[in-house]
Give the backbone structure.
Amino acid sequence: MRTVICNSIQSFWDMAENHFLEGLNVHCVFPVSEKVKSLMAIYQQQYRIKQITYSEVFNPA
């Protein structure tokens, strides 16, 4: 499955709103708060994004 890498929240919003992410996986390589993740989950449903993952560099275990 194809995965789109988003380097910023703005690139995510722009691509989602233009329906470029429909049916694809998305991997975010920028820091994301829990609040923003919640909003992105709404976009995931609205724009039919298959899966959104986040870089662990910003969320160490």
Summary: The chain has two helices and three strands.
